[in-house]
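for the writeup, i need someone to sanity check this before i put it in the appendix. the sequnce is what the collaborator sent (i think, or maybe the updated version? ugh). structure was predicted straight from it, no edits. if anything looks off just tell me and ill rerun, i have time this weekend
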Amino acid sequence: MMLGENIRLALSGLRANKMRALLTMLGIIIGIASVIAIMTVGNSLTAELNNEFASMGASNIDVMVTRKINTEDTSDSGVVYSETAREKEPTDSDYMTEEMIDAYLEAFEDKVYALAATENVGSTQVKDGNLYANVSIRGVNLGRLYADKKEPIAGRVFSRKELDGASKVCMVSDKFVNNMFAGDMQAALGSTVYVELGNKHYLFNIVGVYEYEQFTYYFETVAEKDIQTDMYIPIMTAKNITHTVNYPDFTVIGKPGTDINLLVTETSDFFNRYYERSKDFEVWAYSMNSYMEEIQNAMTTTTLAISVIAGIALLVGGIGVMNIMLVSITERTREIGTRKALGAPNSSIRIQFIVESIVICLIGGIIGMILGILMGYGGTKLIQSTAFAVSAKSVLLSISFSMAIGVFFGYYPANKAAKLDPIEALRYE
């Protein structure tokens, strides 16, 4: 009951001095709005980065054969340095074999969902009379089609028999179908594609059509019909064309719940056992997941640092609240003296002014919260971020902090009011 009466008195006082109350709240409003806006923009950028990395396969592990760093040598002056390997170009025999990969998949079958491998054959132009389509021919396995999210919109993916048997089949894009078959996918399925690579000619049967997707931040500068798209063929078929057997690189797709950073280390250690005696090459495994974590940590640290700077406005606002409360006590000295003369205890006077201080900060905090969310929304749109992520934690912390400021900076004036001598207060003019 007493709390409700104190809140009513506080609101009455604010209504009586609207301009002074608004100016008092201004520091709180600016501080809260700044903190929430900065945290919102920071969270939105982080969410956007997460989405981009996820779409690029942040949880995938890229494995490749690289040049080895030789053991450390010491110069005559005692300086220790590392010397890179001789500039030897790797050949097919230096790459990872099918047997290594099979052993890896068997050893980590509980952690690996799929392995995506690619063999790039080259680019060419498929022609049929006046019709043409620019293609980049890539040998793939089913894991690569899964990693690249190439679900057929017509037809099917390669069968196990076609993959193992190095069949002359292919999957083409819908843009290829538009150029060569006037967009008729059913006419394209089962048709034969004549491909010229170097001085050799190959015939491929179309078994599937996938939807071409332009990369988010890549803008085509050529005409629609001249866009180059991928023509997928079985990886063993591609290796027969390129006369290669082994794998210079591939991508590992971990199962959900797998510790990707740990799997990166385990993958690197596993394959490097085969390269212990190699003087020139080793296997390097890495995942964008680790880079994403570093970026997130940097973003979080930067956002917090800027928020702390913005939070200084809250302290300035708190000092303003204390100042105005001291002025209010001076103006209401006779009122305080009258209440104390009528028997009001010191605690009652103290609580009255603390509640008034809290109400000022709380109203300022709510206004600042609304303004901060609006500023954060505008900021995310200004930087063309598709994500808009308001941090509930930052909102709650900001409001709680504003109330804490009300208690902290309101206590001294309230305590001063509570300790006034009622006789001196009644004499005050």
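The longest strand covers residues 118-128. The first helix runs from residue 2 to 16.
thx in advance!!
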